[in-house]
Amino acid sequence: MSDLLDLWFAIAQAQTAHARCLDDDRLEEWPDFFTDDCLYRVTSAENMREGYEASLIFLNSKGMVRDRVSALRTANIYERQAYRHVLGQPSILLVEADAVKSEVSFIVLRIMRDGKTDLFATGRYLDTWRRTVDGVALTSRIVVCDSSRIDTLLALPL
Questions:
Q1: 29 with 150: CB under 8 angstroms?
Q2: Which domain range does residue 96 map to?
Q3: pLDDT tens digit sequence for 10-47
Q4: Considering the domain boundaries, does residue 44 fall inside one?
Q5: Fewer CB within 10 Å, N or C, the chain?
Q6: How many helices and strands in the chain, by DSSP H and E?
Q7: Is 126 left (phi over 0), alpha (psi -120 to 50) or beta?
Q8: What is the reported pTM?
Q9: C-alpha torsion sign, points 103, 29, 86, 7
């Protein structure tokens, strides 16, 4: 039981640190949460239910995660905005020798430059973690948005 509790705590800590990284606009640190062979996808609950691979964002390596950050900082043009993540408690779904699968619900509020705050997205993270000497790292994060109506201003990672 202690090992499972330690694992749950490591995942909860990593989830919180990940959300703070995004909320604090420390995007250059975002790739550090992933393994080199990672997957990051943003999709809808409907696409997930139907088994569709279509994704709003699809990154399948840490290099692509870094490229996304670089594009957000230097190439993409989008209205400045910030996020505030509200996370549920992680549920550990499966523990294997080399992987841990978890799920956590999220709410993301978007704060625009003029101060307007909107409910931007709700959903769940379907994560696969790898244990490391420092705790855990994401090998896969599938962001499943509850709604298929996604704002065209989806620029920052969820």
A1: no
A2: 2-145
A3: 999 999 999 999 999 999 999 999 999 999 999 999 99
A4: yes
A5: N
A6: 3, 7
A7: beta
A8: 0.92
A9: positive
